[in-house]
Design brief:
- With 196 residues, this protein is an alpha+beta fold.
- The chain has one domain: Alpha-Beta Complex (tt1808, chain A).
- Helices cover 20% and strands 31% of the residues.
- The longest helix has 20 residues.
- The N and C termini lie far apart (34 Å).
- The mean pLDDT is 92.
């Protein structure tokens, strides 16, 4: 379960560096947030999303390309230090890939895979920070509910662009140029009669 530091002072990056390697440290509105490494269903969903997007969007194979898609990039957005499950930048905004330990350029798209340990921070503090820093698209993927909630950045807040779930295929913005296999996020075994 994610925990919030009870220290009265504002957390610093040094606090993150002192954490053991088997956890993820973030700074959200001055608080040190410590989360366990993703569990199996969480890791499966993240990996499947990355697999679906890497070829057509990151590499331009079978799709339009034009994106840099990364697993768990460390983002330094002002005083905030966030580690989304996945993030993507349009190549026109990241024409040259930087050789850095963390990114200070806010992504265009963020995906947070929800778990009991992270859902409240993902849906509150982190969600607001992403909007404040200009992220255009935010996905909340819930492996337990088997849903993908797609938010688009509006002038006054996030707007629910669509919700997808269950099995089958869909075109999910901002990656709606290709068909996305939703069922691959929840299970490695295809339904009877379908090839893997």
């Amino acid at each position: 379960m994610a925990s919030v530091s009870t220290k009265p002072q504002i957390a610093s990056y040094e606090d993150i560096l002192r954490l053991p390697e088997n956890v993820i440290g973030e700074i959200v509105d001055g608080d040190l947030i410590v989360s366990p490494r993703p569990a199996a269903r969480h890791a499966l969903a993240s990996s499947a999303i990355g697999g679906e997007l890497a070829g057509p969007f990151h590499r331009g194979r079978g799709g339009p390309g034009g994106w840099v898609i990364l697993f768990e990039p460390e983002l330094h957005l002002g005083a905030q230090v966030l580690v989304p499950d996945l993030a993507g930048w349009r190549r026109e905004r990241m024409a040259t890939f930087p050789d850095v330990a963390y990114f200070s350029l806010a992504p265009d798209w963020v995906c947070e895979v929800l778990s009991p340990a992270t859902a409240i921070v993902d849906r509150t503090g982190k969600q607001h920070i992403y909007r404040e820093h200009g992220v255009s698209w935010l996905w909340f993927v819930d492996p337990s509910a088997r849903t993908i909630e797609v938010l688009s950045r509006g002038e006054r807040g996030w707007l629910v662009a669509d919700t997808f779930g269950g099995e089958g295929e869909a075109r999910i913005p901002p990656f709606d140029a290709v068909v996305f296999d939703i069922g691959a996020l929840w299970d490695i075994n295809p339904p009877p009669g379908q090839a893997p």
